[in-house]
Design a protein that fits this description.
Elements lengths: L11 H16 L5 H16 L3 E8 L2 E8 L6 E3 L3 H9 L3 E3 L17 E9 L2 E10 L7 H14 L4
Antiparallel strand pairs: 1-2, 1-6, 2-3, 4-5, 5-6
Helix pairs in contact: 1-2, 1-4
């Protein structure tokens, strides 16, 4: 297990391609879900300098805050509310270039300008969402969607 990341300079795609095996090595054989998700969020935040990275877990009809890196966050989000709740309800990755223009956006932090949310799906059901926020407009694109989805699809096999 390695507790240090090798952050490369290069395109966003090259950064993800370098980071994915490092995250898998970091988590290694560890079985604790909270430890794994905490290190996962720390690795993403460190590698890309995202403003906020964290998980919300489905509990009944709401999302409940899980491991994260960043400022204090909303603790509970209703299904269909905000970007996270909408991603959960629709079971789809949402990329929002300007959160102020997203209908029903929940402003956990006024600093957040753009966001990507990726549902974690196990046995056909959304069990959690990964939420990544940026301080800049239009930070996220198809590359983030592809690699964050790949990472989340892998995560559901180990948590």
């Amino acid at each position: 297990m390695s507790e240090e990341l090798s952050i490369i300079q290069g395109s966003k795609e090259e950064q993800y391609q370098s980071l994915i095996p490092q995250i898998k090595a970091l988590i290694g054989d560890e079985k604790d879900r909270i430890a794994n998700l905490a290190n996962f969020t720390a690795a993403l935040k460190e590698a890309f300098q995202f403003f906020w990275v964290g998980f919300y877990f489905v509990q009944k009809e709401e999302l409940v805050l899980g491991p994260f890196q960043g400022l204090i966050a909303c603790t509970r989000i209703q299904k269909g509310k905000g970007v996270c709740g909408t991603s959960w309800e629709k079971n789809e990755v949402l990329i929002v270039d300007d959160v102020e223009r997203f209908p029903g956006h929940i402003a956990c932090s006024s600093i957040t300008k753009s966001e990507v949310v990726v549902p974690l799906v196990k046995d056909g059901e959304v069990i959690a969402v990964l939420d990544v926020d940026s301080e800049e407009l239009a930070t996220f694109d198809a590359i983030d969607k592809q690699y964050l989805k790949e990472l989340c699809d892998w995560l559901v096999t180990i948590i």
